[in-house]
Amino acid sequence: MENDQFTPSCPLPIPEYPNILMAHGGGGKLMHQLIEKIFLNSFDNAALNMRHDSAVLNIDEKRIAFTTDSYVVHPLFFPGGDIGKLAVYGTINDLAMAGARPLYLSCGFIIEEGLPTETLWRIAQSMSQAAGFVGVELVTGDTKVVDHGKGDGLFINTSGIGVIEHDLIIAPSKVEPGDAIILNGDIGRHGIAIMATREGLAFESEIVSDCAPLYAPIAALLKSDIKIHCLRDLTRGGLATALVEIAETGQVHINIDETAIPVHDNVQGACEIMGFDPLYVANEGRFVAFVPEIDAKKALEILTSLTENNNPMLIGRVGGGIPGIVTLKSKIGVTRIVDMLSGEQLPRIC
Amino acid sequence: MKYLDEYRDAAACRKYADAICRITTRSWNIMEICGGQTHSIVKYGVDEMLPDKITLVHGPGCPVCVTPVELIDKAIEIASSPDVIFCSFGDMLRVPGSTTDLLSVKASGGDVRVVYSPMDALKVAQREPDKRVVFFAVGFETTAPANAMAVFQARNLNISNFSILVSHVLVPPAIEAILSAPDNRVQGFLAAGHVCTVMGYTEYEPIAEKYRVPIVVTGFEPLDILQGIYMTVKQLEEGRAEVENQYARSVRRDGNEPARRLIGEVFEIVPRKWRGIGEIAASGLGLRKEFRQFDAETLFMLKGKSVEEASECISGLILQGVKKPHECPAFGVRCTPERPLGATMVSSEGACAAYYRYRRIRNVSENQPLR
Amino acid sequence: MCLAIPGKIVEITNNDSLMRTGKVSFGGIVKEINLAYVPEANLDDYVIVHAGFAISKLDESEALQVFEYLREIGQLQALEDSET
User: How many Cβ pairs within 8 Å bridge chains A and B?
Assistant: First the structure.
């Protein structure tokens, strides 16, 4: 029986891609297609089908949020953080997006043979510091080592559990026409910080990743009785992808104003050189909140008081137009559709 | 950012658009030959600000789009060879050859690297003397100075493991090919501002005179493009056919003299095949004999192949401005950025990709598919 | 094509003619750029940069021309409107 090989009874759902490409991890359409066709087709259940950042589970009448994420960033250390800090905050943030107070994390390490032990120590210490800052505990873990050449230094997976202490259902399905969309700060810092380190770009004033825990601002909004409809943290694929995902899952029409979206000068400069669109650049400390119009002003005041330098903004509204799409009013006043990219952005010459 | 943001000013753009509306009394077809201008027009929605009588047509201004299939196949063959590090601008990686693309070669274990400049590829060659480093030298005249310098330095520094796969094309012969076609409807041109920054615009003067078309050297920001269109329409309305320079902050009549000199030293003019159009005489650059040891096609013995194109793709008609992307039956249905049938959909500067990505609400409500 | 961006020369790092290089700032992000093709450009000048090379020195007086031209059109239009 041990030697039985599992043979799927259905044909491979994406025959046009016999091999996985980098684009399948880029946060764009190819990744979404992979998730839909391979994973969602294989694992089908109500919690998963909410398609939100974490799964909300009912356990004995208490609502628990549960999530997992893997971290494969290269380089391991970058201005503003490291893979360990990302692994803690990233997973905590997914819990926060359900409005859950993060409690416990698990952590799996896949270490490439040859990684300096001191590097691992630094990363573990960084994780300890990050977890302590937020008040979560790393309660279980696993360690594997793979042959040299098979691992890019270090991969980390963290799973997280949080408890939901409010009555709201925070999910794309709760978004309503008229909702205001609030962004908690300027976009693109993380992706540019990583790229700058990789490409050896220098800055007059350094671009630091925006890697940060997001539960505190969410808790502040909940405490002030803001009736949050949906939250989404912006990671790979950037602001544009997060909004398109919500528009599609929630079947709503989203309108945003390009002039309202804050982008730091340095980030803008790097994007101009590489031919990147900041809307699609990765973030690690940014989220969008969909709140009723009536709560928008208060929500913005709360976020501004908590995060002085980040420049939270009201960037758009949920409209009554064609559902499932995002439109953007450009800097010169013309409206166009915002879509997901196919894969990752590549530096271009044209 | 200085010298960028001012040219994206909404109020100034509106004023130029209104001015164009005021002076337009007849229908005019104006072509731009520059992927960067296509991108800007579609992204900012410049075409939506124009009066209906003005039709903006996108020409073969995307060097990625016009690189022939056989050259992509050669790139793939080189990149798949052992001990080769294949360097390229990002734009080229997703362009389909006959069967696959460079990104797939990377996925299968080929050493394919994205670089920002050919000089980065040269540095790689210096750092890895045991590997053969090949740079995919694609571009119009704008990129020729960079490629010329890389080859020139390779010879000076004796970097023998470096070579370039050349796919350089020139703009003026393409303009002549379009204007001399029997079904040509183009009445005015926006010339590419950065091509002219390097080459100047003296080559366009005999073309303007011979075919009686105004040619305005134009920049890339929405305000530049609107002013370029204004100047072109003004000429058309007044019956003039001259070369004017809208992008004077960067372009001089004789271009960049040291750059032209080095280009002439390293490259010579050769015939080139344009994907979707066919061969145009004297329309490309190839390495001169003295630099032939850096020619990847020669080194890897890949000359003399020819490939037939898939029949459904009409990118040739798109590139010549005869059809618009949404007029193609496959657009958005069988041909998308994820599954492109031709280069104009793959390259982010290609007209089809630009139309798809920045498409408009009205196209959606007219039953154009979203996916 | 082609993606070329204006930036300000903030340092000249090597004055040897063929490999003349400098640090150019694009809104605060600084990159090492080859200046061999713009021998006339110096510290604090703006250059247009493509694929790691400066291809022209930005003419700051011409840069205003776009707005001057617009103003002239506006004045002409005002004149035409007042005559009708």
Answer: 112
- Range 27-66 of C in CB contact (< 8 A) with A: 27-31, 49-51
Structural domains of chain C sorted by starting position, each given as residue range(s) with its CATH number in brackets: 5-83 (2.30.30.140)
The answer to whether residue A339 neighbours chain B at the CB level (below 8 Å) is: yes
Q: Do B143 and C2 touch (CB under 8 A)?
A: yes
Ordered by start, the domain boundaries in chain B are: 5-60+184-245, 64-170+255-299, 315-363
**B101 token code pair:** 């693309």
ipTM above 0.85? yes
Write out residues 212-241 of B within 8 Å (CB-CB) of A. 222
Query: Do A241 and A303 fall within a single domain?
Result: yes
CB contact under 8 A, C29 and A266: yes
Chains that touch A (3 or more CB pairs under 8 A): B, C
Please list every residue in chain B whose beta carbon sits closer than 8 Å to the beta carbon of residue A269.
1
pLDDT tens string for chain A (350 positions)? 444 566 666 666 677 777 777 777 777 888 888 888 877 777 777 877 877 888 888 887 789 999 999 999 988 999 999 999 999 999 999 999 999 999 999 999 999 988 898 898 899 999 999 999 999 998 888 888 888 888 888 999 999 999 999 999 999 999 999 999 999 999 999 999 998 887 766 665 678 999 999 999 999 999 999 999 999 999 889 999 999 999 999 999 999 999 999 999 889 988 998 888 999 999 999 999 999 999 999 999 999 999 766 789 999 999 988 999 999 999 899 998 898 887 777 777 76
The set of chains that have 3 or more CB pairs under 8 A with B is: A, C
Contacts of B227 in chain C (CB under 8 A): 66, 69-70
C-alpha distances in angstroms, A104 versus A135, A136, A141?
A: 9, 5, 11
Would you call A104 helix, strand, or coil by DSSP? strand
The answer as to CATH 1.10.238.10 being correct for domain B64-170+255-299 is no
Tell me the nearest-neighbour CA distance from B358 into chain A, angstroms. 6
Its domain, for residue A76, covers 53-164
* Residue A251 neighbours by CB distance under 10 Å: 12
SS3 B30: strand
- CB under 8 Å, gap of 24 or more: what pairs does B9-12 form? B9/A332, B9/B223, B10/A331, B10/A332, B10/A333, B12/B223, B12/C66, B12/C67, B12/C70
Domain B5-60+184-245 matches domain B64-170+255-299 at the CATH topology level: yes
Amino acid (one-letter) located at B322: V
Best CA proximity match to B98, nearest among B79, B71, B80 = B71
Please tell me the total count of domains within chain A: 3
State which residue of chain A sits closest to C7, comparing Cα positions: A269
